[in-house]
Amino acid sequence: MPYCIAITYPRIAMYIYRQAEGCPDNISLTLPLSGVQYRTGMNIHQENIFPYPDRRCRPRTGIILPVFYFLILILLVISAEECKAQQDTDFKTQRRRLVKLHIANEGISDQVVIRSMLSVPREEFVPERYRKQAYRNTPLPIGYGQTISQPYIVALMTELLKVDKNDTVLEIGTGSGYQAAVLAEIVQSVYTVEIIAPLGKSARARLERLGYDNVHVRIGDGYFGWKEAAPFDAIIVTAAADHIPPPLLAQLKKGGRMCIPVGQPYFPQVLKLVKKDADGNITVRDVLPVAFVPFTRKDNQTDKPE
Length: 306
Ligand code: SAH
Description:
The chain is of the alpha/beta class and about 300 residues long. The chain is built from 8 helices and 12 strands.
């Protein structure tokens, strides 16, 4: 900033400097790049070491150039803002289209789920280079060999949980945080556990930035659930396990529901809906074949989260 002032108003810069230095008779200022030199004395004069004689003694202290630069700057800022607004509108349009074609038309009818899918900006949950593909109905890579789930599956699992605004939900497999955000639009609080620390940390920061302050992210092995916050009205597992982890069943409330893909990694897996009735009896129903990333375990298994 001081440099800009000095370039644009060398006389003013020198005046300020001169005042600050107790008004010495001679001070000089050489502008970097152009090499134009300004000196003060009894008479202010300038010397130009540049070989353009007509510029000598004619410092550009006029108002036109700064105003011109300022206008250019304003135009740049406005067009950047417009670009961003246009992009946001595009994403909104794409989101509506996705929800209509691949969610509502595919049988998801719970309006609460539809509204949530319309509100969460999926483009914010995918790496920069996949933003343009954010509204394809496909999983996308999020790093560390993991993926953000397909939007239809996110909507389906959310609908199967039959959650409402007073519920507390546990998610195992935070990943990008997208499924947690979709739930957070509906329920009171979401507790979500991620085993890969960098993913968990960036999801936590992202959810915070987007204002999802009812989501709590923990880094650790989700096999053990989140004892301190249990029991849960609903539990969702977004990685395929070879069995339903008993600690998760134990942390499910009576009358609660759990949605979990079960199967061997990379083999056909089945999305299961688990219900615990009022007496604590468990029933399991197969919903549809799915392909999730594997539910992994830490070598040093412990239920101590980070
Ligand atoms: N729900 C996520 C998708 C997650 S992909 C989203 O909306 O983006 C599955 C995630 O489960 C991966 O990030 C993987 O690291 C995590 N995961 C696998 N095993 C886990 C475990 N034992 N505990 C917690 N997270 C686990």
